[in-house]
User: What shape does this take?
Amino acid sequence: MSKRRIEIMDTTLRDGEQTSGVSFSVSEKLTLAKLLLNELKVDRIEIASARVSEGELKAVQEITKWAAEKEYLDRVEILTFVDGGVSLAWMEKAGARVQNLLTKGSLNHLTHQLKKTPEEHFEDISKAIEQASKKGIKTNVYLEDWSNGMRNSKKYVFQYLDFLTQQPVERILLPDTLGVLTHTETFEFISEIVERYPNAHFDFHGHNDYDLGVANVMEALKAGCHGIHLTVNGMGERAGNAPMASVVAVINDFLPNLKIAVKESSLYKVSKLVSAFTGFGIPANKPIVGDNVFTQTAGIHADGDSKKNLYFNDLLPERFGRKRKYALGKTSGKANIQKNLQELGLKLNDDELKKVTQRIIELGDKKERVTKDDLPYIISDVLNSGDFNQKVFVKSYVLTHAKGLKPSTTVAVEIDGELHEANSHGDGQYDAFMNALRIIYKSKKRDFPKLTDYAVRIPPGSNSDALCETIISWDNNGTEFITRGLDSDQTVSAIKATEKMLNII
Ligand SMILES: CC(=O)SCCNC(=O)CCNC(=O)[C@H](O)C(C)(C)COP(=O)(O)OP(=O)(O)OC[C@H]1O[C@@H](n2cnc3c(N)ncnc32)[C@H](O)[C@@H]1OP(=O)(O)O
Assistant: This one.
């Protein structure tokens, strides 16, 4: 059976820009327009509302200039108003050739906003279409508030559609302007319309106020609509529009009789760029494009993936130019660690793996986020912790820092099985800790090395804020050496480095 081709119209640059606080610059609009048509391969883009601003006019001029060279002008659309030709004059100046005329799809909006009768409105629309066509501009028509119109003034909607389907319009655009439809209603309303006007082209435009944007688009397609309007990352006014990435995956995986031109592998890239341009972060759990959606966190899941990809579904990350990850944290088992080690080309024996797993679980318990890039540092720290042959243990300490008082500490250290305790002050907490240690070592008439350098850093390559590394240089009667400590807490990492030093001297 041949598949039905669905048109995808991206309205990130028009409806998406109606996200509160979002405004694209001219060059951002041009970059995205090129990416959407050339790389993501959507069929059409709606790039602006007419009349908006000088900046918007400039952006549209840049896009239409480029689109004309590529012969894409019929794929670039402008939302226009029924305003006696003002929008059309703006469009002409902008070099655009397709208008999406905003008309009233509910009697409520028509009566209370435009304050016109249906007959007057149809007359104005007919003129707007005729004027456009004289200028070589093609017309699609939005029935604003159509979904409420179907609920509350169905007679008007069909009176209007009877008129509109006789007009020279390319497409009729059915918006759920306020995102109020349920999926069942969407199916019923679109089915009724498509059956009644089999020769017209209908687009569905879904909003996400009840988080039903994707479900409603799916039902509109099942009911036979010919095109859908989407935005990257679901940008748009209020709760936004139906999101591009999710809808594309739903069509490809659940609607086998339909086909679209959009390239799945470009979805992530476009999503990231839109997020960067708008400063509108992508929630980590947003399907397809969120940071976490291809990350297995539970040890059991990582184990199942190693056995027969038991925890995979059809949403394979590679489809979208992404990779599966295995999180490191308190719910990790050794399987998660193994997966990360494989990626880093590292191998550990069973005992080492157990120690590293334990350390990661401890960090997770402290609510720290550990990444793959932290692993080499954790491994080096755990495996070189000197717990074999360890003679000196920092058993406990209290560090205080209070405004107006010198930092102070009490330290208990076990040296060769004997416990020693000391109190001291210092310029900082670590300085106080070191002074207390010096007191203990002096009382035992033991040498205590000179600290010659002290550096703290986030381990290079580590993208998380889970770990901090302290590197301390020591001079023990002319013998110089370095020790390192790793912990999520800066002072604790310095104390760990110091404990290593105490076991070396
Ligand atoms: C589906 C959607 O999301 S619709 C979104 C459409 N896009 C936008 O509104 C963004 C761009 N809009 C704008 O820049 C401005 O609103 C403009 C330039 C269009 C108009 O600006 P203003 O003249 O200042 O009017 P304002 O913003 O208050 O809009 C209200 C006017 O639009 C009229 N209006 C509402 N719908 C339409 C329509 N489909 N066609 C023509 N006029 C309309 C209202 O009746 C009202 O007119 P009135 O002042 O004579 O009562």
Remarks:
- The longest strand covers residues 392-400.
- The two ends are 80 Å apart (CA to CA).
- The CA atoms of residues 366 and 488 lie 9 Å apart.
